[in-house]
Amino acid sequence: MKRADQIKTALQRLNSPTRDREGAEILDIDYYTPFLLNAVSSAWGRQTSAIYRRDFGLGLTDWRVLAMLNIEPGITASRICDVIRMDKAAVSRSLKTLNEMGHLRVEQPGADPRKRLWWLSKQGLQVHVDILAVALGCEAELIKGIGPEDLETFLKVLRQMLTNIDPK
């Protein structure tokens, strides 16, 4: 039995992520989870990034870093990368941008720049408050029409998917 066949037989689904087209198996993107996750993520990123750039001069990565620094003040860039699952170069660029804009304060306990500890400045805290209001409004639009129980189930499923592919 081929690996693909083993995977197919192991999955219990109501709808198949593939369909037949003239004897060839093709993806059915309406039921292929990675496609739908990426489509939602890409659409979300385009919409929110445009708003954050227009209103705050910041991108989506910057917002994610700001949010993480508000959640865990006084953390390293490495910790930010681990939690928000972003590459170090993107986080480093964002920290540089946010710091230059006056949104951060930094402490370097030793000679190693990788050990820098980052916090939001007073200005950064205010920017966080302002963007958070916009972000929550965008989220409300995203989840409009989804019942509370369905949303909680969906979030549980997303957390399980994340654990399946990137356990931390």
Task: Tally the structural domains.
Answer: 1
The CATH first-level class comes to Mainly Alpha
The sequence of SSEs as H and E is HEEHHHHEEHH
Give the spatial strand order of the biggest sheet.
1-2
* Tally of DSSP helical segments: 7
Radius of gyration using CA atoms only? 20 Å
Span of the ends, CA to CA: 32 Å
The assigned CATH architecture is Orthogonal Bundle
Helicity range: 55-70%
Major sheet details: 2 strands, antiparallel
Mean pLDDT reading: 93
pLDDT < 50 stretches: none
Based on Cα principal axes, name the global outline.
Answer: elongated
Beta content: 5-15%
Let me know the number of strands: 4
- Structural class of the secondary structure composition? mainly alpha
For this structure, the CATH topology is: Arc Repressor Mutant, subunit A
Instruction: Identify the CATH homologous superfamily.
Output: Winged helix-like DNA-binding domain superfamily/Winged helix DNA-binding domain
